[in-house]
Amino acid sequence: MSNQNQKSMKFDTHEELLSRVQRVEPPAFLFTRIEQRIKNSLDYSFSRKQLALVSISLAIVLSINVVAISKYANTVKQNANSIEALDNSMSLSTSNQLYNE
Amino acid sequence: MLEVEFNHIYHQHSKLVYNVCLNYLQNTSDAEEACQNVFVKVYHKYDSFKQDSEVKTWIYRIAINECLDQIKARKRNKRNPFLSILSFGNEDVIVAKELNHPGIILEEKESMEKIFKALNELSENQKTAVLLKSMEGLSQKEIAAVMNLSEKAIESLLSRARANLKIKLDDNEGK
C-alpha cells in the first residue's frame, strides 16, 4: 500500500474516532447553579428605568453646577469692574507705595 | 424571559451545549463553567434575540463564542500569570488542563489525546468546522448557519482543516 493511501486511511480513522466520542449528559447540579447565577445577576442588576433616572439626575446636578460656576465667575468680574470704576471716579491711588508720590 | 420558557430551553439544549463545550475545552470543569455562562447569556439575551435564525443555531453560536473566550483567557493567563492573580471576578478561568472527557473510552484515550492536540493547533474557524462536522454531526448547511458563512466557505474551510490536521498529526507523530 502506498504511503499516501496509508496516510488517508489513518486520517479516516481519526475522523471516525472523533465521531465515536460519546455524548455526555450534563451533571444534574448544573441547572441549580445556573438558576442561582441568574438570580444573583438579577439582584445586582438595574432596570433601564432606574439607569435612566440616575443618569437624568446626574445630568441635572452637573448642569446646575455649570450654571452656578459661570454666574459666580460673572459676579467676580463685575465686582472687579465696579471697584475699578470707583477708584477712577474718586481718583484714588491703587498703588501700595505710599512714599513715592 | 419567563422561568417556564427558560426551563424548556435549558432541558432541550443543555446536552448540546455541554457536549459542545466539552469537545471544545476537553475538560469537564471548564465545560461546566462555560455551560453555565452560556445559559446565563441565553437568559439575559433571549428577549433581544431576533428569531432570524433557529434557537438551536443561536445557542450553538453563543456556546462556541464562550468556548473561544475561555481559550483566549486561558492563553492570556498562561502568558501572564501575575496579571491573572490580579484579575478580579475571573478566578474560575483555568490554565491549560489535561484531557478529561467522559465521552472518550479508556482504550481510545491515548489516540484521542493526539487528535485533540492537533485539533487545538488549528485556527479557530477550522477547529470549529471540524468539531461541528465530525463530533456534532452537523451538515455543511447547518455549520454555515452557525458560523455565519456560506456553504462554499465551509466546504473549503473543512478541506483546509482536514489537510492541516493531517500535517499536524504527522508532525506530532514524527516528534
Could you walk me through the main structural features you see in this protein, from its secondary elements to its overall organization?
The complex is a heterodimer of chains A (101) and B (175). With 101 residues, chain A is mostly helical. Helices cover 74% and strands 0% of the residues of chain A. Chain A is built from 3 helices and no strands. Chain A is rod-shaped, with a radius of gyration of 40 Å. The mean pLDDT of chain A is 82. By secondary structure, chain B is mainly alpha-helical. In chain B, helix 1 (3-25) crosses helix 3 (55-79). The chains are: A mainly alpha (101), B mainly alpha (175). Chains A and B meet through helix 1 and helix 2 of A and helix 1, helix 2, helix 5, helix 6 and helix 8 of B.
- Please count the beta strands of chain A (DSSP E, at least 2 residues each): 0
Q: Mean pLDDT across all residues of chain B, rounded?
A: 85
- Tell me roughly what share of residues is in helical segments of chain A: over 70%
Q: Could you say what the CATH architecture of the largest domain in chain B is?
A: Orthogonal Bundle
The H-and-E topology of chain B, N to C, reads as HHHHHHHH
Given as residue ranges, the uncertain stretches of chain B (5+ residues, pLDDT < 50) are 88-96
Biggest interface and which pair forms it? A-B, 23 and 35 residues
Number of beta-strand segments of chain B: 0
| Secondary-structure element series of chain A | HHH
Number of helices of chain B: 8
**Rg from Cα of chain A:** 40 Å
Radius of gyration of chain B: 17 Å
Give the assembly state of these chains.
Answer: heterodimer
Structural class of chain B: mainly alpha
Topology:
The complex is a heterodimer of chains A (about 100) and B (about 180).
Chain A (H helix, E strand, L loop, with lengths): L2 H18 L8 H15 L4 H42 L12
Chain B lengths: L2 H23 L2 H18 L9 H25 L1 H6 L22 H12 L3 H12 L4 H8 L3 H24 L1
Helix pairs in contact in B: 1-2, 1-3, 2-3, 3-7, 5-8, 6-8, 7-8
